[in-house]
User: What shape does this take?
Amino acid sequence: EPEVTQTPSHQVTQMGQEVILRCVPISNHLYFYWYRQILGQKVEFLVSFYNNEISEKSEIFDDQFSVERPDGSNFTLKIRSTKLEDSAMYFCASSEEAIQYFGAGTRLSVL
Amino acid sequence: GESVGLHLPTLSVQEGDNSIINCAYSNSASDYFIWYKQESGKGPQFIIDIRSNMDKRQGQRVTVLLNKTVKHLSLQIAATQPGDSAVYFCAENIAQGAQKLVFGQGTRLTINP
Assistant: This one.
């Protein structure tokens, strides 16, 4: 069964450093998303991406965040100058239509 | 507004019993809802969805009910099994040009042997 894959599963970084979280969406999907989940809290929408551009973004997705589809298979989330409060699980999702399928997530720990 | 909430944070049921997880939403314009299951250390897993032109939809051991009058959504799981233990989220799909899921807080379901 096709699935969304994310790497790495756990990323540890120092405050102020840049990180890139990687995702391989399901191959025939056209819509891509990033969400985050702070420990013990609900899943929060960050950004959606379609046709090589951002469709919608939340207030969380400020200038320190960016997304890119560098090739035909990968979808990345870059966080510049990480802050302690960026520590969370980051989930990538993709969809063909309405149903979004999620990856297992990347746990980001900012020290 | 964009608010999807859950009535109970935790629910415990005996194995084999039925469980009902509730969810309230506030955006009366919402027309599509999804239930996700999240097991420890994993991403949300799609369970079932329903559009606002329906009141009920059934899957394998799961049923979703939608009451638009009171803006209430529920997930019924029949004959619960240990593998049903997880956190369950309802989510509202805001498809205003781009799809965006607004998640509720989640209900932790524990199945007791």
Q: What stands out?
A: The mean pLDDT of chain B is 88. The interface with chain A takes residues 32, 34, 36, 41-46, 49, 89, 91, 93, 95-106 of chain B (CB under 8 Å).
